[in-house]
Amino acid sequence: MSTTKHSEFNEDFLRQPSQVDEIMKFLADVSQANKMEGAKKEPETKKDADISASVTETSFLVSQRLQGASKRSKSTSKKPNYRANMNQMTFMRQIDMTDEQRKQAREERVRVATNFRSRLGNAEYRRTNFDKAIEYYTRGLEYINDSPVLFVNRSLCYIKKRLYSRALIDLNHVLNNLDGCCLRAWLYKAGTFKRMNNDAGFEECIDGARRFNRSHLAYIEYFLENMRSDF
After folding, report:
1. Contact 148/178 with Cβ under 8 angstroms?
2. What is the C-alpha separation between 151 and 188, in angstroms, rounded?
3. What is the spatial distance between Cα 143 and Cα 82, in angstroms, rounded to a whole number?
4. What is the pLDDT along the chain (231 residues), one digit of tens a residue?
5. Which residues contact 155 (CB under 8 A, 6 or more apart)?
6. How far apart are CA 94 and CA 105, in angstroms?
7. Cβ neighbours, 10 Å, residue 51
């Protein structure tokens, strides 16, 4: 008698190789192969050093610099300002000087400035080398920058060169900052305005010359008489 079995009671598949296990094993092999292929293509990245590893609650000293911090190039590195250092040294040296030493130092600067004015600048002026004379007067002012004579002499060279506006700069500096009674500055300024056809400015300067130099009225009249030919 044949026996009929229901298909759900058939357990023969338990004794056969499992297809599910084979599929899972195949997928695992594929995944492992992909991981190995990606590891070959990915470049090796260097891990930044942890500079805070040596920092503790009682020690704040960092003994290692970041790897990304590049050294300063020679082109961008700040060069020492030797001129500023020299000026600072000169200033500190002047502070340490006594009053007598300062007086002697100024006398020496005056001597050098006078040489540039009388021996060099004036000589070039007499030769009508006005550019060279201006250069020497300017060098003298580098030693003594509060000398009305040097500014007035230089202004006369500018007048001879017909640089009237530049001459007025020097003359105004003398009258406004150094010596408001300087006779030559007043007269040269008057002559400059005269050449610029500024009659009002000319009269104002002659009035200033007379007001501040009453003991030199005769010389002022002499200057006015000879201004056209000698100035």
Report:
1. yes
2. 11
3. 20
4. 444 444 444 455 445 555 656 667 777 776 777 666 655 555 555 555 555 555 555 554 444 555 554 555 454 555 556 555 555 555 556 567 888 888 899 999 999 999 999 899 999 999 999 999 999 999 999 999 999 999 999 999 999 999 999 999 999 999 999 999 999 999 999 999 999 999 999 999 999 999 999 999 999 999 999 987 767
5. 167, 168, 170, 171, 185, 188, 192
6. 10
7. 13
Residue carrying the six token digits 């009249």: 221
Total count of residues recorded for the chain: 231
Q: Residue for token digits 């230089």?
A: 154
Contacts of 179 (CB under 8 A, 6+ apart): 148, 185
Q: Residue 196, by phi and psi: left (phi above 0), alpha (psi -120 to 50) or beta?
A: alpha
CA 47 to CA 229: how far, in whole Å? 89
